[in-house]
Design a protein that fits this description.
single chain; binds zinc ion; mainly alpha
């Protein structure tokens, strides 16, 4: 198996060399942020790339792109939809923890617990919306720092 993979890689390398194409080197690569910096910026609702500007100008409106470093917060169509997973996940964990916490300590009756959790699943995701987006963008910045190769080329083209 390993031998087959190695053979395929060397085949691809040979093909690439024979094609005569060499990508033009980029002026500068993206700057990798530390995990601690990204967490602090995500919780502070700040630009993950520079930490200088605020992500939001209102409850839902974003300051896109960053006025300081130019990082686009919405990098591609549908990109920010990933924040829904963050919002849903945190809400679900919170509901499960509160439910079992109240169930085992018997602090609330079933009806009271239902009312509290129903209110929570309506209000909490609205309040958490900005943080979910901020965490999603920071998570993305960790694995794919701005600007990636394609974005660098687009920035160079546009001047
Ligand atoms: Zn920035």
């Amino acid at each position: 198996m390993a031998l087959r993979v190695q053979a395929h890689v060397s085949y691809l390398e040979t093909r690439y060399k024979m094609s005569g194409r060499s990508p033009t080197p980029l002026k500068s690569g993206p700057k990798r942020q530390t995990l601690a910096a990204l967490i602090a910026r995500a919780l502070g609702l700040r630009c993950p790339a520079c930490g200088q500007t605020r992500l939001f100008s209102g409850w839902f409106a974003m300051n896109d792109p960053c006025a300081q470093c130019g990082r686009r917060f919405n990098r591609a169509p549908g990109y920010l939809l990933g924040s829904i997973y963050v919002n849903y996940g945190v809400t679900a964990v919170l509901v499960v923890v509160i439910y079992f916490g109240c169930y085992f300590t018997e602090t609330l009756t079933s009806k009271q617990l239902l009312a509290v959790l129903t209110g929570l699943i309506v209000v909490f995701p609205l309040w958490f919306f900005r943080y979910a987006r901020s965490i999603w963008i920071a998570f993305d910045e960790l694995f794919d720092p701005w600007p990636n190769e394609q974005e660098s080329r687009e920035l160079e083209k546009s001047g």
